[in-house]
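thought: fold this chain, then report.
action: predict
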Amino acid sequence: MRHRLLVLVTLHLVLVSVSYTLAFLLRFEGTIPEEFVGAYAMTLPWIVVFRLLAFSSFQVYHGSWRYVGMRDLQLLLKAVGASTLMFTAFLLFTAREQAYPRSVPIIDAILTVMLIGGVRFSLRAVRERSRTAGPVQRTRRVLIIGAGDAGELLLREMYSNPRLGYKPVGFVDDNPHKTGTQIHGVQVLGTTERLLEVLAVCAADELIIAIPSAARPKIQALVNRCLESGLPFKIVPAIAALSEGAVHMRQVRPVRVEDLLGRDPVNLDETTIRADIHSRNVIITGAGGSIGSELARQIASYGPAKLALLERSENSLYLIEQELRRKYPDVVLLPLLIDVSNQREVEMAFGSVQPDVVYHAAAYKHVPLMESHLLAAVQNNVFGSHIVVTATAEYGAKLVLISTDKAVSPSNVMGATKRLAEKILLTHAAHEHNPFVAVRFGNVLGSNGSVVPLFTEQIADGGPVTVTHPDATRYFMTIPEAVQLVLQASVLEEARNHIVMLEMGEPVKILDLARNLIRLSGLEPDVDIPIIFTGLRPGEKMHEQLMSESEETMPTRYEKIRVVRSDTPPPLDAGLEQLRATVENRDERLTLKMLQELVPEFAPQAELLSRLRERSAPDQRAVSATR
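observation:
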């Protein structure tokens, strides 16, 4: 409305006048005595002026009447209180000789709040009722699990927007003292432990878990009870609720396996990260992979001057480029189809970008596959890293290497090559002024080729779900969380020229992960979907580590990041040249031997050693026959 302010001022003027008149009438039980009529007539204009000035000062006119809430009521109370004090002071100085009823200002203040507040909240009620007009979804009776702030906000939104199609029928909460209480007229029917008993007497079509701060064991227990109920259920995820500072129905979604990890949200020092990235040239290697693509998304949001995406897979590069161009049209993107083990291509890319920061995420990561492709693993993970580290040092840029928990006391080729990449970084860091840091963490949920997508496919196919060992455990975190912590670690001064370790929480049993995924699919493990054990795959450990016995960690100012203290490795140049010669000669046995010399903590498994002996035996027989 063009004349909104004029309408509001006029309405307030009328309501203030009515309130003041009613205050006199109430004080004198309906009839104002003649001796007070003059006081009423003289002071009415002044109370109007004081009220309207206070309303303007406290911005009472600015709030939307359609969305009036507690904050608007607080502003109204402050404005009425301030104007009442000013009016009372005015009376003390001007009406000493004239009779004036002392209780009128108090009565008037109460009536003003009731009239103006009542009108505003009535308009909101009319608006919310009018929203029921038009198409409404089929009403679903919903029981909210959690009678706290999140549950109250969801209830309020259900009431304010009936088109969502939800009808709240009750709450359950883990606090037994809340049982029997009501929130906006909806009763807390019992505790979460008695969920099934509550559902027996309360007909519900759907459940919503609204406890975003709950730890993993509690969420797991709630999910199990929801599964027992046989009703569809959803959750307010912790990350979404806490990152936006509020809870909305649009955040409610089906439970995912990451919700059962109970991970606390990452509190980023965004100011420092933005200062490190904004208006600077950034290179990401392996930009089409799970970690590399998430790095690209989060880094693009900080506004780099240039963002170069180095990737060897054409399709992966195309997909991340198209996504970033859609979401961040102002960022200068340089998609480069490059293999990091090609030194000339890497040098040309660095020359054209002139990087300030480099994130090296390119690596072969599949443990069993690398056991069968030793030479490829060394070529990519070791020499590709060496090329990137050298090029970064030449341009004086910061380098962040993405490492893995499998580099700790490695028992497989992938872990050994990543450990050697860490050593290459540390030896360069000892002689460079620009910061180098390696970030070590465990498995990420949902990454390409990881266990969760595999289990999901197996469940969709009707099973069986294959688990390596009933006692095998792994550390897990989500891809966004891992990348957030990588960015945080990259700006940590005490992490400079060190390896840092991300806090991964408690290890998770792979068997428990499989069972949870089956249940979340609406099926029962070992009944609808069989689980079979296949044995540990080549190169796999039963349990992973985040640091070796020779390493110690130091806390940092960020709760989930620790610095790994270890001795600086001896010079590697001669050993790397010998390793390069064995790879070029396609000699797997000598390559493995050199890898063990460069990474003494590497303990290759018997299966790999046996396979290499079998491969070399025919070669030796062929040489003897030739002689």
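thought: worth noting. The longest helix spans residues 104-130.
final: tokens above.
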